[in-house]
Amino acid sequence: MSYFKSDIVQQEMREIEKLQEKVYKSVFLFPAMSKEDKIEHIEMMEDLLKRQRIFYTRLTLSDDPDAVKMKENIISQAKQLGFPPDVNLDYVFSNMVNMIENMKKSLNNS
After folding, report:
1. Rounded distance, CA 105 to CA 42, Å?
2. Burial class (CB in 10 A: 0-12, 13-18, 19+), 91
3. Span between the terminal Cα atoms of the chain, in Å
4. Do 38 and 105 meet the contact criterion of CB atoms below 8 Å apart?
5. What does the pLDDT profile of the chain (110 residues) look like in tens digits?
6. CB count, 10 Å around CB of 15?
7. The pTM is what?
8. CB atoms inside a 10 Å sphere around CB 38
9. Which SS3 state, helix, strand or coil, does residue 99 take?
10. Domain residue spans of the chain
């Protein structure tokens, strides 16, 4: 079975897409949000990042041609954003996790 025909993969892609829409819709409103809304937004970002990281890891483990192509597209997009050609996306995900942790700490200290 093709990687993207899996019900589990399709469901996870829908969940990631929904979360991305929610996060992107409110990202510019973040500075004006209440503390509770900021916490909720950060938790949503955390959930999105976790799902994206798992999805990417699954892509890297698949030998399905469509999955390989999507992984290559993700790496190509990372390069277009200025990441080095030999970018390790697991390292990028780790840095993003650290950034979210710092946001949570900063919010808790305010």
Report:
1. 11
2. exposed
3. 51
4. no
5. 688 899 999 999 999 999 999 999 999 999 999 999 999 999 999 999 999 999 999 999 999 999 999 999 998 888 888 888 888 888 888 888 999 999 999 988 87
6. 14
7. 0.86
8. 20
9. helix
10. 3-109
